[in-house]
């Protein structure tokens, strides 16, 4: 498809002798919001980490915005691209993790500015302007000068999301961004993601928040033992699952 943003073909990943991803095929268009659900150990986070080469993969290809990620085919076989090239490709995606990974000695605005200055070689004034814009976008304009230790978990996660998006990635990856938060702080982070989805941002997110996946996703993928067990419209999948395994999973999840 001409507007294909991400295309994964035959993705295989081993941890030692254990095959964690067993030939995953998946694609998404620009502007889609795709949620990945499934049990622990089904390969959800591993797939996300392969997309931006935080994990190496042993088979298949990943193409993002027309570029083959991480490896190239040569006459002598598959070869890992240079670290410089991989770092450039990694910047095509933004990633928000379970842990916020903010620098404790830097204020919120300095945390968001850092990548713009160091990676994008932007002047500090321009970087600060962009950082403040995104902090305002995630509802933290008045906390720009606060340090992580002065912010709640939900606020820290919103700073981390602002930091990733400020880099202007082609695709945002979210890995269980609410799992380290107290329940009363989850809503504020999910609201930020909903707002970004409404703006048309391309997003791929691993989540255990079933109600959220149902409401925000244009498509849902159910991972099961290293393969895609089922995928489709969330309203169809959640209300009329085609496989027994998905039906079981939804029964034990928080989706009602």
Structure description:
This protein has 256 residues and is an alpha/beta fold. The chain has nine helices and twelve strands. It has helices spanning 44-51, 83-90, 108-118, 124-137, 153-166, 183-198, 210-216, 234-239, 244-252; strands spanning 4-15, 18-29, 33-37, 59-64, 67-68, 71-74, 77-80, 93-96, 171-175, 203-206, 219-224, 227-232. A six-stranded mixed beta sheet has the order 8-9-10-3-11-12, with helices on both faces. Strands 2-1-4-5 form a four-stranded antiparallel beta sheet, covered by helices on one side. Strand 6 (71-74) and strand 7 (77-80) form a beta hairpin. Helix 3 packs parallel to helix 5 (153-166).
Task: Output the keywords.
256 residues; alpha/beta; 4-stranded antiparallel sheet; 9 helices; 12 strands; 27% strand
- Uncertain regions: pLDDT < 50 for 5+ in a row? none
Class of secondary structure makeup: alpha/beta
Q: Strands of the biggest beta sheet: in what spatial order?
A: 8-9-10-3-11-12
Distance between the termini: 35 Å
Estimate what percentage of residues fall within beta strands: 25-35%
Average pLDDT across residues? 93
The helix fraction, in percent, is 25-40%
How many β-strands, per DSSP? 12
The count of helical stretches stands at: 9
Order of helices and strands: EEEHEEEEHEHHHEHEHEEHH
**Rg (CA only):** 19 Å
Largest sheet: 6 strands, mixed
Overall geometry comes to: globular
């Amino acid at each position: 498809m001409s507007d294909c943003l991400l295309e994964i073909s035959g993705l295989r990943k081993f941890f030692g002798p254990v095959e964690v991803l067993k030939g995953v095929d998946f694609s998404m268009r620009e502007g889609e919001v795709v949620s990945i659900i499934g049990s622990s150990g089904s390969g959800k986070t591993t797939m996300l980490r392969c997309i931006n080469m935080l994990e190496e993969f042993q088979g298949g290809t990943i193409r993002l915005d027309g570029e083959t990620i991480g490896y190239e085919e040569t006459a002598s076989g598959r070869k890992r691209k240079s670290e410089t090239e991989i770092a450039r490709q990694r910047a095509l995606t933004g990633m928000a993790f379970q842990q916020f990974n903010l620098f404790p000695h830097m204020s919120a605005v300095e945390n968001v500015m850092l990548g713009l200055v160091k990676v994008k070689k932007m002047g500090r004034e321009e970087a600060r302007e962009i950082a403040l814009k995104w902090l305002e976008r995630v509802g933290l304009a008045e906390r720009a000068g606060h340090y992580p230790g002065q912010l709640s978990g939900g606020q820290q996660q919103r700073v981390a999301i602002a930091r990733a998006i400020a880099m202007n990635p082609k695709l945002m990856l979210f890995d269980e961004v609410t799992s380290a938060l107290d329940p009363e702080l989850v809503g504020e982070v999910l609201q930020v993601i909903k707002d970004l989805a409404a703006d048309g941002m391309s997003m791929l997110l691993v989540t255990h928040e079933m109600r959220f996946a149902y409401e925000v996703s244009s498509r849902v993928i159910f991972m099961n033992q290293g393969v895609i067990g089922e995928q489709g419209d969330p309203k169809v999948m959640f209300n009329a699952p085609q496989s027994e395994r998905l039906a079981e999973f939804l029964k034990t999840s928080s989706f009602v």
